[in-house]
């Protein structure tokens, strides 16, 4: 049987090391193994002739496509602020130049409460609000509570003054909507207090359900209150002081303010209902 003899490699024989990344391994006099190390080049040190491609984030194009929508939201919010300011200033001008008798005080309180404070309060958390979008969430929540407390208090007081004056016998559309807004305002303020103390009442109702109910009732109160304001321009008190063309202008401004102010709350309610449907 033929024996297997060890292969002897002479020092003159050329050996090619296929596992090394060093070019020195191809030379006639190979380097020791410890010196045959891999050569690495940092990406920052790569030659300028090498073209580097970076991966574009997925949200870049999405953010660019949302820029026109954001600008439109800001523009509409500025228009809404102008409508709210005009209605509030003009109604204050009409009512405050008198001695704030019963009807004058009623008109001023409901305008300040519902058309100004509550309209600003329901838009605090809206991302397109140019007045509050730069604040932190906790600061926005504080502003929301302050505005809604002032708005609900002034609006409810103004409605109560008229109901006492009429003996709670309001037969007109304006009066009936005012009573409905008054009841919803008290309910929204009560649910808002429960939402503020949600950790204490979470045994009875979950915080998400409580806050959703509060937002829904508060938004319904705001809508009905501004519709009542719209019909208030048809009352004898307003007709006796304002010309017909200006009555139409005030109605249009109130409706524009109602529609533009409702976008943020409807968007928030949609996300809350979506979260609730995902839990059940």
TrEMBL record:
<protein>
    <recommendedName>
        <fullName>ascorbate ferrireductase (transmembrane)</fullName>
        <ecNumber>7.2.1.3</ecNumber>
    </recommendedName>
</protein>
<feature type="domain" description="Cytochrome b561">
    <location>
        <begin position="75"/>
        <end position="269"/>
    </location>
</feature>
<feature type="transmembrane region" description="Helical">
    <location>
        <begin position="145"/>
        <end position="165"/>
    </location>
</feature>
<keyword id="KW-0408">Iron</keyword>
<dbReference type="Pfam" id="PF03188">
    <property type="entry name" value="Cytochrom_B561"/>
</dbReference>
<keyword id="KW-0249">Electron transport</keyword>
<dbReference type="InterPro" id="IPR006593">
    <property type="entry name" value="Cyt_b561/ferric_Rdtase_TM"/>
</dbReference>
<feature type="transmembrane region" description="Helical">
    <location>
        <begin position="213"/>
        <end position="233"/>
    </location>
</feature>
<feature type="transmembrane region" description="Helical">
    <location>
        <begin position="74"/>
        <end position="93"/>
    </location>
</feature>
<feature type="transmembrane region" description="Helical">
    <location>
        <begin position="248"/>
        <end position="266"/>
    </location>
</feature>
<feature type="transmembrane region" description="Helical">
    <location>
        <begin position="177"/>
        <end position="201"/>
    </location>
</feature>
<dbReference type="InterPro" id="IPR045150">
    <property type="entry name" value="CYB561D1/2"/>
</dbReference>
<keyword id="KW-0813">Transport</keyword>
<keyword id="KW-0349">Heme</keyword>
<dbReference type="GO" id="GO:0140575">
    <property type="term" value="F:transmembrane monodehydroascorbate reductase activity"/>
</dbReference>
<dbReference type="GO" id="GO:0046872">
    <property type="term" value="F:metal ion binding"/>
</dbReference>
<keyword id="KW-0472">Membrane</keyword>
<feature type="transmembrane region" description="Helical">
    <location>
        <begin position="105"/>
        <end position="124"/>
    </location>
</feature>
<dbReference type="GO" id="GO:0140571">
    <property type="term" value="F:transmembrane ascorbate ferrireductase activity"/>
</dbReference>
<keyword id="KW-0812">Transmembrane</keyword>
<keyword id="KW-0479">Metal-binding</keyword>
<dbReference type="GO" id="GO:0016020">
    <property type="term" value="C:membrane"/>
</dbReference>
<keyword id="KW-1133">Transmembrane helix</keyword>
